[in-house]
Design goal:
Rossmann fold, 7 strands, ATP-binding
């Protein structure tokens, strides 16, 4: 948990297409004016430069082993200690990391977004507030189809095949069970303004108390 001088880390998780990104962006918007940043777990897919393209494409990207959780954990520790980090950049066109990184300075609030952020106990214990975005399977697959056809140029057949053989079974095996660790469950994602307002109010309260503590200790 946060100390007086360490940032608040909010974890936002849920299945693919659940609305995690929308929830994260709405938190960001409502906390405008505060020191806040977003880190995506997708940036921490393992470096696969030593693998062939065929091997890279065969990786199950919805499995916990696809992520470099050790690096993510180390980076969260650094942010807690008010140290800057260099976030990896994952290049989906070549299915491995880009040589580039994104330099991230520490902020008062960090939103960590990703499908499996609650599956690793070390990372889970770093989170001050754990949010699970709970959206029906049918809605999630429709959103995924819209995103992948419009933004990634994929065929409907390939999207459905990937969903049935990898995404859906991994969701029920690894992602949905982490719901029990959540402090707040948000049905229907970004459309649930009440849940988001409650969350933002809690964060503002923590920030206000931290500000008073720092002023008192001067």
């Amino acid at each position: 948990m946060s100390t007086k001088n360490s940032p608040i880390i909010i974890g936002v998780t849920g299945g693919s297409g659940s609305g995690k990104t929308t929830v994260s962006k709405k938190i960001l918007e409502q906390l405008d004016g505060h020191s806040i940043s977003i880190i995506q777990q997708d940036s921490y897919y393992k470096d696969q430069a030593g693998m062939t393209m065929e091997e890279r494409r065969a990786v199950n990207y919805d499995h916990p082993l696809a992520f470099d959780s050790d690096l993510l954990y180390q980076h969260l520790k650094m942010l807690k200690q008010r140290q800057a980090i260099d976030v990896p950049v994952y290049d989906y066109t070549i299915s491995t990391r880009s040589p580039e990184v994104i330099h991230q300075e520490p902020t008062d609030v960090v939103i960590l977004e990703g499908i499996l952020i609650l599956s690793d106990e070390r990372i889970r214990d770093m989170l001050d507030i754990k949010v699970y975005v709970d959206t029906d399977d049918d809605i999630r697959i429709i959103r995924r189809i819209e995103r992948d056809t419009q933004e990634r140029g994929r065929s409907l057949e390939s999207i459905i095949t990937q969903y049935l053989t990898g995404v859906k079974p991994m969701y029920h095996q690894f992602i949905e069970p982490t719901k029990r660790y959540a402090d707040l469950i948000v049905p229907e994602g970004g459309e649930n303004s009440v849940a988001i307002d409650l969350l933002v109010t809690k964060v503002r309260d923590i920030l206000a108390h931290a500000g008073r503590d720092r002023q008192y200790n001067k």
